[in-house]
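step 4 of 6: structure.
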Amino acid sequence: MKFQGEIFLSEIYKKYLLAPDGERIGKVSDFMVIKGDVFPLIDGFVISAAGKKFKLAYDGIELFNRRFALCRFPANKLPRTPVAEKDILAVRDIWDKQIVDINGAKIVRVNDIKVREIESRLCLIAVDVGIRGLLRRLGLKHNDWPLWKTMVHRIPYDLISWRYIQPLGDEITHLSLTVSNQDMQSLHPYEIADLLTQIPPDNQETLINSLGIDAVAEAIPEMDEKHQKDLVERLDKGKAADIMDAMSPDDAADILGDLSEEKAEAIIGEMEDEEAEDVKELLQHEEDTAGGLMTTDFLAVKPDLTVAETLDFIRRASAEIEHIYVIYVLDEQEHLLGYLPINDLFSHAPEVRLSQFMNKRVKSIRSDSDDMEAAALMARYNLLSLPVVDDENKMLGIITVDDTLEVLLPSLKKRSRYKQK
Amino acid sequence: MIPGKRERGSKKAFFTNLVIFLSILGPGIITGSVDNDAGGITTYSVAGSQYGYRLLWTLLPAFVVLLVVQEMNARMGIVTGKGLADLIRESFGVKVTFFIFIGLLIADIGNTATEFAGVAGSMQIFGVSKYIAVPLAAAAVWILVVKGTYKFAERIFLIFSVFLLSYVVSALMSRPHWGEIGRAMIQPSFQFDGEYLGMVIGIIGTTIAPWMQFYMQSAVIEKRIKIKDYRFAVWDVVIGCVATVVVAFFIIVACASTLHEKGIVIHEAKDAAMALKPLAGVFAAEIFAFGLFIASIFSATILPLATAFYVCEAFGFEAGIDKKLHEAPKFYTLFTAIITIGVVVILIPRAPLIAITIWTQILNGVLLPVVLICMMLMVNNKKIMGQYVNNGFQNFVGWTTSLILIALTFFLILSPLLSRFL
């Protein structure tokens, strides 16, 4: 055991490395970090001596504390490996960089790193993102002035366990663990959107890669238009197409509609055929019409189906379709005949056919009508979803109640980074 | 909607470019306008009243320096997508960042105080007591920032920028001598005494305040400008710099052709407005005061906000007015504290305003070379800027500017000491 308990890297940084005979070899100027099983590990210290830097493996250290580090070798027998370009160094690559605090769902900056020896390996267990860390880095913490001591004492610790960190920079990403990515998935799409708008484009890509397609597909529609456009334009078309495929078609169409023609076509070209078809259809409607607001994901059945068959169909379709509360009944030519709230299905015997009890007085709206009109209609008739039809009463899609909220309260859907100025 | 295929005629291309340009417009122009704040107007007025047209030539080098510095900020913002505070923290560590930001914080509290002094002075011309005007203005600023949105604020600021042209009206009403102005611009007159050089430093220093670099870069990022639209961002910077220098030019001209000719020497911007009354009429004086008021409010809004934001950005605290009070407590505390201290300082009877202004300027002067050197090092770092590092010409102008500013700053700090001992 070279060190007992926990210590911050700033407390070892710039301390002397001593040879067994007490000779000063150099100063500890950085720490090499590698991936570990649970936590990243410190694999060695970087020592600066006489203007030169070299690595000293962790095994080569006898012990260290807040005043010095003691080396196993005398100065002339010290193995001096030069620092390689691809090495990850705690001071250079992790200190002062931005990371995501997954629990708080916010972007923070690493002020210091806490380490602890576990099974004779030195682990990075937490990062300090608080004022205490700043003061420690500035060398202001250990001051004997009594008033200062009391003040510092009152500052709360602001440590985040390494498990709840999502790195943003390329270097630290190599140290990241699958555990943290799963925690990232548990964030609400709104929170992910908020994070994405706060970080520089390069880091956005890192974050997107570690989040996975589905989480990103849910988060992007929550961003404001400017950031959506900016983000999707920077992605390569294959990646963008994968994300669009996973998104609901109305959201995908909204985003693609804001892009340049070339870029949008390139992305649609890479999408799955079925999704691409839906999106192309939706793109033909003007933005502020009922058609521009609708989605093509809805449940449609034939009138001669039984209740049991319909329930079975819903069970199978529910993985793909978000809105299953209302089922629409269409004829062979897709003309809208009637609708059924899902609770009606449960109150009828399994063998009854839909045509016997469906609601025929169905409210619908033409695709070229104003979107405000659609919202008003839904408010007046208390509808969860409103079918959109063409001029021959053929059903094209539905408008869901959450989409109308964006029409009625557009100011709620704005999140941008430097909004405060 | 995907629009139908467009034919790319030259006229169409022109309009496409115009639309892109208009959407990018803003950061440079707003920064340029905030530049002519209460402190700036004071410096220009005093310079005009004391030296007439003789200091007009300083605006040319000031323009070049402003342009070079802001172009670098725009480029760094576009390429990295990171704020200047972010970049400094990541490249130079905690200590450098800490000292820059402690300096910036103190300087900006002083700056904010001078903005509120501008509010007080200009409202005095209209017969409103400062004990009413300053608290009201502070409340308005606070509400605009905390309750408003960025888009709304930006629109208001762009309108504010137009109002600054009122100085052109003031200047034209003062019947300037264009011939003399032309001569003064072409043949710079040097005078090697402390006061004259101090004024030169004052003019250049007030045109390039350190906090503006931070503001400019963040504003560019907020616009999400891409590198392919870089040339439009440069035009925005150019227009902003031209606007700054043009407004400064007309303030100097207005004061030179009235106050200087009658031998009236002033110490504050509001003195200029007062003195204009008998010389150029009540209307000219009121326009001058109105311009001062707008400029002061404008900067009193942006300064505390920007400062609070950069400090939080550098140290990783939650920031932004879209956050709630309990989500970003440090940000709101800082913002409110800067405004409150600024207001309180102004409302203390017989507050040493001139001393505050001078010390703030000196602090700005010390910070500027530090920030500039950090910028020059980062803008030449391939790891940060990739292929968009400075070219030889940009480096020449950048380093020359830094060196001249360092020399000037040394002189500015040392000259009061020297004059005391010599």
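step 5 of 6: annotate
 - Chain A has a mean pLDDT of 84.
 - The domain at 299-407 of chain A is CATH 3.10.580.10 (CBS-domain).
step 6 of 6: archive
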